[in-house]
Design a protein that fits this description.
The two termini are 27 Å apart. The chain has a two-stranded parallel ribbon with strand order 1-2. It is mostly helical. It has three domains: 38 residues; 269 residues, MetI-like fold (Orthogonal Bundle), CATH 1.10.3720; 33 residues. The N terminus is likely disordered. Helix 5 crosses helix 13 and helix 9 packs antiparallel against helix 12.
Length: 352
């Protein structure tokens, strides 16, 4: 009796906690919807080309960032999980470091590198004093935005796909080998279909980060839904327009989950296989070893080493600016925010 009472009481406490968290999280959405229902000022805005421009730019960036992050995330995770090559243990953890570079910082580095008489010109001029600045490619702002977001966010897909490759697919790969299934069919019909749910979770995280990004698109002057929300609210004091853009932005995210849910209903997987020994990675030699190393190193260099070197170059060249910055206070504030938010999120996740 007492056990039943305490269990019932504990369930109610958990229910109230979950209800409170959900209410706090969904309150902004209700306020946006109510604001939209109260006003008719949106009609003139929605009929203009501004909303179409916001949606088109957001969709273009989202599409290409998704494609590139899948390539940058799945390819190295597949190589590291199923093959042994030079530096495999290093790249296994080094490729995660790209998540430490915010997209807008990468955007600053990329812009500084390719701008007229920027870092790229300085390097070429060092090698050949008579070099012409015109040989440096002139990348458009949208392309640089896509590159910045892709190399900063592919780590989400890399982590989730590698975890799936290492922990859940060894049984099926071992069975495919024993049945004599070709390597191509093993990859196309077993590995990627089974890892698709985990990859899509990574894609969802990348999509939400891409659509909510403000620093990168603002720096490159790209008009997206996020910049439209900010400009409408803080510059033009147009809350109704910002509410509309927020709903459209939320619609993008909901569409992603709806599409994945439809695919998931069509495919059902049941893990009825007992755990076998971990699949031994295949040793690569010669050209294949060099190719796998080059692919992982190139992604690691562009995603992490490149922006870090650019920041070191700035720190040395403009070291006088550091005298006016209280780095200790900034780092302490950052550390406090990290610890506080991580503690809150981890605590809430146990009840949700």
């Amino acid at each position: 009796m007492f056990k039943s009472y305490y269990n019932s009481r504990g369930n109610w406490l958990i229910f109230l906690l979950v209800l409170t968290i959900s209410t706090v999280a969904i309150t902004p959405l209700f306020s946006i919807i109510i604001s939209l229902l109260k006003t008719f000022l949106i009609d003139s805005f929605s009929e203009s080309n501004i909303l179409i421009t916001y949606i088109k730019n957001s969709f273009d960036i989202l599409f290409f960032v998704t494609v590139l992050t899948i390539i940058f995330g799945v390819l190295p995770s597949y190589l590291i999980s199923f093959f042994n090559f030079s530096g495999v243990n290093f790249f296994k953890y080094a490729l995660i470091l790209s998540l430490a570079i915010p997209p807008y910082i990468y955007g600053y580095s990329l812009s500084s590198f390719f701008e007229n008489y920027g870092t790229a010109f300085s390097l070429l001029n060092f090698l050949s004093p008579n070099i012409d600045n015109s040989i440096i490619p002139n990348l458009s702002p949208k392309i640089m935005t896509i590159i910045s977001l892709s190399f900063s966010l592919f780590g989400y897909i890399y982590l989730l796909s590698m975890t799936t490759f290492n922990s859940q697919l060894s049984n099926y790969i071992e069975m495919s080998r024993s049945l004599g299934i070709s390597k191509f069919n093993t990859i196309s019909k077993i590995i990627f279909p089974l890892s698709r749910p985990a990859i899509f979770i990574g894609i969802s995280l990348v999509a939400m980060e891409t659509l909510s990004d403000f620093g990168t698109v603002s720096f490159f002057g790209i008009s997206t839904l996020t910049t439209g929300i900010y400009n409408s609210w803080f510059i033009f004091d147009d809350i109704e327009t910002s509410n509309l853009l927020s709903i459209v932005l939320l619609g993008f995210i909901l569409c992603l989950f709806y599409i994945e849910n439809k695919f998931q209903k069509k495919r059902k997987f049941h893990d009825s296989v007992t755990k076998l020994n971990q699949v031994k990675p295949r040793n690569l030699k010669g050209f294949h070893n060099l190719l796998a190393f080059f692919i992982c190193f190139l992604i690691f260099f562009i995603s992490f080493i490149f922006p870090v070197l650019q920041m070191i170059y700035w720190s040395i060249k403009h070291s006088n600016y550091l005298d006016n910055i209280n780095l200790l206070a900034l780092n302490l504030n950052t550390l406090f925010l990290i610890i506080t938010t991580s503690t809150i999120l981890i605590s809430f996740s146990f009840f949700l």
